[in-house]
Amino acid sequence: MPRAFLTARWRNLILANYAVPEALLTPLLPPGVELDRRDGRCWASLVGFQFLDTRVLGVAWPGFRDFPEWNLRFYVRHEGRRGVVFVREFVPQRLVSAVARLIYNEPYRAAPMTMSVAESDGRLTADYALTYAGRVHRMTAVGRTPAVTPGPESVEHFFKEHSWGFGTSHTGRLIRYRVEHPTWDVSPVESFTADLDWATLYGPEWGAMTGVEPTSVVLAVGSAVSVYPKGLPV
């Protein structure tokens, strides 16, 4: 088995899930990859989470271990494998963003960010915010505890369980990588709020999403993860 390029703990993940027009996603598809549909529709998720105890090739770099990430991703298939493609990913560190763009052509941007997670009275509250283009963008979810395990046919499972990520290299070729983690439990969501400018974060074509409410929201507990940049045999 190849050595993991990156290990970390991804915790307290908000996934706000939106049905989106196919025309928004088709130009972003890597070569050989097709859109993955549920209920006949294409989907994208606004995701915020804690990136903790980060290690690259087993090394933990001071100042780069614990940070939030905010991303927009959509759902695809390639040769029978279900996975995701990222529209844009935000992290607070310029170095992390630059390395991801340079080596893997991942659509990272650096921006000031905050994360806050608190649990009390049987409720878990997760809040993620970033400041970009002179505006604060924020998402907050409140879920019940203890967490539960949704079934394999559930909406929650569809959005939170993906082992593959796909992208396009600088030369236009398909990039794939595998993410390993145990099945995530979820805290049933009681409330969700999002205050963001879609066009500012993702481009003018995404302005059509302004004011659209998510069809579902998942608050996943998360776990330790391992990322293999060239994928594992299947």
Characterization of this structure:
- The protein contains 4 helices and 14 strands.
- A hairpin with a 5-residue loop joins strand 11 and strand 12.
- The strands form 2 sheets. The protein has a 7-stranded mixed beta barrel. The chain has a 4-stranded antiparallel beta sheet with strand order 8-9-10-13, with no helix packed on it.
- The termini are close together.
- The chain has a single domain, classed as Acetoacetate decarboxylase-like, CATH 2.40.400.
- With 234 residues, the protein is mostly beta strands.
Brief sketch in words of this structure:
This protein has helices at 22-25, 94-104, 155-160, 198-202, and strands spanning 6-20, 34-35, 37-38, 41-56, 67-78, 81-91, 108-110, 113-120, 123-132, 135-144, 164-168, 174-180, 189-195, 216-228. It is mostly beta strands and 234 residues long. The chain is globular.
List strands and helices in order, with pairings.
Elements: E1 6-20, H1 22-25, E2 34-35, E3 37-38, E4 41-56, E5 67-78, E6 81-91, H2 94-104, E7 108-110, E8 113-120, E9 123-132, E10 135-144, H3 155-160, E11 164-168, E12 174-180, E13 189-195, H4 198-202, E14 216-228
Parallel strand pairs: 6-7, 6-11
Antiparallel strand pairs: 1-4, 1-14, 2-5, 3-4, 4-5, 5-6, 8-9, 9-10, 10-13, 11-12, 12-14
